[in-house]
Amino acid sequence: INGTNFGPVNASLAFTWAGQTAKLSRTSSPWSVAGAFTTDQMACEVLDPHYSVACTVDGVGTQISTTIAVAEQTFTFESKLNFTAPVISRVSPDVEHVSGGALLTIEG
Predict the structure, then answer these.
(1) Which of 44, 57, 82, 96 is close enough to 102 for a disulfide, judged by CB 3.0 to 4.6 Å?
(2) Domain hosting residue 86, numbered range
(3) CA separation for the pair 83, 66 (Å, rounded)
């Protein structure tokens, strides 16, 4: 998430993904990468104070809305995110021993 004005020293930052919200509060300036926050579905950290937050989320679902709030000022992204199921197109080799230990290549 890239932007500007991620709040004053005592601001809180909240990121909502698929209905679950993670919050990070800051008590000193600048934002600290050490101030990462996590929930069951996401992990976020501030990469560049006031400008960039990175969140890793589960890539599952369709029409997922994303919202970020800084010091109670909210912005919702207009684009909804969609994730499709992975597709496996090829596995090689076609035949392998049942004893295990073989290296398989999965393409998709």
Answers:
(1) 96
(2) 1-108
(3) 14
Pull the structure tokens for residue 99: 């004893």
**Domains: count for the chain:** 1
Instruction: Say if residue 30 is preceded by a cis peptide, omega within 30 of 0.
Output: yes
Residue 58 gets which letter from DSSP? -
Contact 12, 24 (CB under 8 A): yes
Tokens, residue 23: 């919050």
- DSSP character for 75? E
Contact 68, 13 (CB under 8 A): yes
The pLDDT value given to residue 1: 59
- Report the distance separating Cα 36 and Cα 49, nearest Å: 12
- pLDDT by residue (tens digit) across 48-104? 766 777 777 766 777 777 777 666 667 777 777 777 878 899 999 888 888 888 888
